[in-house]
């Protein structure tokens, strides 16, 4: 057994998922707690402090040394590990010097990044991205986020904010977005957008259906449900095609709850992407695959973030 382990923490607006993880990916302990974001920054930091203490005790009981803490957090995280901006999903979180605060609390090294970046790292380490050291990761959830993994590391951009693919404008003057603009991709490709499509196009029989119910009805042959699924697949493909033109990626890993639909949805997306993408980019098809780790990807990726920091400092 490895003599050391990292704490991996994935902070979301609803839950905090975390684990005590060895360098080979084995999980010694894990916890899922409610974020209770309404308690603000002080409440969230208190929860993190409690987790650090719990894992310190669990590491000691397992006979391993704690190497430090990796954290993936919602929001825009700069290169110093500070939350430059977070939405009201995490009230009061903007401006939090998260890396410095965690290092002060634990007395150990910490590494902090955006939640989708650590999801991508997790998928590369133990999930659908295992076969590529360079690939594009897109997460379809309440919004749309992404990360370009280049030679094993996230592409951060100037300030650390690269990957906000959901705010590419795909429909000029289109649906209003929470960012204040209109026509952003996440207003068409997110799960939130899919729910709106169901309300708008589902008619009396489908307007109250959840996304899983929609897909079940489509699989059973409901024409209205299938029409919505096809339209949603086209919206997803529109953004993916643009990203293929921008990045020319070896592969694309798509995460989020819709990945549960497998090839029923992904085959539609793949066909639309082929139709929308210039032939030079698809002479060798770009694999578009569903993520594999589900809700644990961020936890694993956060631990990997810490391991990568420690490795880089030893070079």
Describe the structure.
The protein is an alpha/beta fold and 315 residues long. The longest helix has 25 residues. 42% of the residues lie in helices and 20% in strands. The chain is built from 11 helices and 12 strands. Helix 7 packs across helix 8 and helix 8 crosses helix 9. A hairpin with a 3-residue loop joins strand 1 and strand 2.
Biggest beta sheet summary: 5 strands, mixed
Strand order of the largest sheet: 3-2-1-4-7
Helices and strands, in order, run as: EEEHEEEHEHEEEHHHHHEHHEH
The total of helices stands at 11
Q: Write down the overall geometry.
A: globular
Layout of secondary structure:
Blueprint: E1 4-11, E2 15-21, E3 27-34, H1 40-62, E4 65-73, E5 76-77, E6 83-85, H2 98-106, E7 110-114, H3 115-126, E8 135-140, E9 144-150, E10 153-154, H4 186-189, H5 191-201, H6 203-206, H7 211-219, H8 223-247, E11 252-255, H9 263-276, H10 279-282, E12 288-290, H11 297-314
Parallel strand pairs: 1-4, 4-7, 8-11, 11-12
Antiparallel strand pairs: 1-2, 2-3, 5-6, 8-9, 9-10
Helix pairs in contact: 3-11, 5-8, 7-8, 8-9
